[in-house]
Amino acid sequence: TTRWASYDLAPPQVTSSWNPREVYPFTFTLDLDENTPPGLYPVIVGAYTRSSNGEFNRLQIVTPDNRLAEDFVELTRIRVE
How far apart are alpha carbons 81 and 42 in whole angstroms? Predict the structure, then answer.
């Protein structure tokens, strides 16, 4: 799968201090690669942890019945013409 745009963001504070019921909005702009072909594309978000050796590990979603699911959430789809 080709990634036609991406954006990495470090949160302004350590996420372990976040309240699970609180909303923490982030605003950013995705700049599409100029070679992006026309089509319908998903906009997804994922979260990562950083290991002691500096590697990034993507977090998986845990379902209400404690099953592991995808490691991203699809927010919407956009059409490129």
Answer: 14
